[in-house]
Amino acid sequence: MSQYTGRPEDPTRGRPVDGIDEGDEADDLDDDFDDEPRGFMGSVLAGLKELLIVVVLAMALSFVVKTWLFQAFYIPSGSMENTLVKDDRVIVSKLTPGPFDLKRGDVVVFEDPGTPSPWLGSLGEQRSDVGGPFHDALVFVGLLPEDAENHLIKRVIGLPGDHVQADGSTGKLKVNGVEITEPYVKPGDFPSEGKKFDITVPAGRIWVMGDHRSDSSDSRWHDDGTGAAGSVPMDKIVGRALFVVWPIDHVTWLGVPERTFAQVPAPKPVKGPLNKPATKATVNPKPGAKPTVPATKVAAG
Q1: Are 92 and 298 in contact (CB under 8 A)?
Q2: Which of 7, 157, 236, 249, CA to CA, is 20 to 30 A from 196?
Q3: Rounded to whole angstroms, what are the CA distances from 278 to 106, 208, 231, 275, 291?
Q4: Range 29-47 burial, b when 16+ CB lie within 10 A, else e
């Protein structure tokens, strides 16, 4: 005969109740120890570790963006006034030329062609006086604007095959026989000011000029009369300047003046290994249409 204990037998005795077993009590004790505050140095080291990871990831992302997509450049001179003034920071798209076609009127950054002589250092062009390992490292990963000494920024006037003329005095430029009105030229300057020229842009090259015509070391001043020496090779182009981002009161989009070149006919096809994409897919064959060509501290030239 069983003895009555005075209370009903717990039917769950010896079995887990609500998912809790006998080992849970020990686990709870372990958790209590885990939740205890870490020492001061442990917290500091953990914070530094997280900060380091964030910084490395940010630098890696910045490097990728700078290398293949966009890059900031610093304007050290006044040779693109009034479109760009000294100390402006601009964002340059490296997708032009490339996925996006280069057009007349685009403002582009390019490496100093160096032929027949370096473009930098003449007619107001300035070189960078900023440097140091830390500064160079930040520029390298794209966290500071590029201020390399071998870049310039100017406006595209002629594409491969374009016939570009200037009287060197007060007259307007002519592109493929059509006079163009250039609203971006600095007030007080004349479009043709400085030097007379009459050239055809060779295959795979562009003709560039600064908006401050009286103070710009551009294609005019480096040419030998053929268009070959003063024009810039396509493979020297870094990209198209999209907008000014600093200082705040200068923030603006650097759009292409569509009307300026709207009546300019397509250039005659020119042969050359660097111009194959341009003569086929990027130049509009319709008369009167606007052709296009695909393809830091920078001196504004």
Answers
A1: no
A2: 236
A3: 16, 17, 16, 5, 9
A4: eeeeeeeeeeeeeeeeeee
Alpha helices in the chain (DSSP H): 24-34, 40-68, 133-141, 219-222, 276-277
Does 154 qualify as catalytic in the annotation? yes
CA dist 96 and 239 (Å) reads 5
CA distance 262 to 103: 11
pLDDT (tens digit per residue) in 99-139: 999 999 999 999 998 877 788 865 444 444 555 665 555 55
Q: Which of the following is catalytic: 94, 154, 186, 290?
A: 154
| Known active-site residue 79 | yes
Under 8 Å between Cβ of 297 and 74: yes
Tokens of 51: 């900060």
pTM for the model = 0.68
DSSP class of 15: S
Distance CA 223, CA 242 (A): 28
Largest CA distance in the chain: 128
Evaluate whether 65 touches 239 at the Cβ level (below 8 Å).
Answer: no
Reply yes or no: is the peptide bond before residue 176 cis, omega within 30 of 0. no
Omega before 202 cis (within 30°)? no
First to last CA, the chain: 111
SS3 content of the chain, % helix, strand, coil (to 5): 25, 20, 55
Supply 50's token pair. Answer: 């997280």
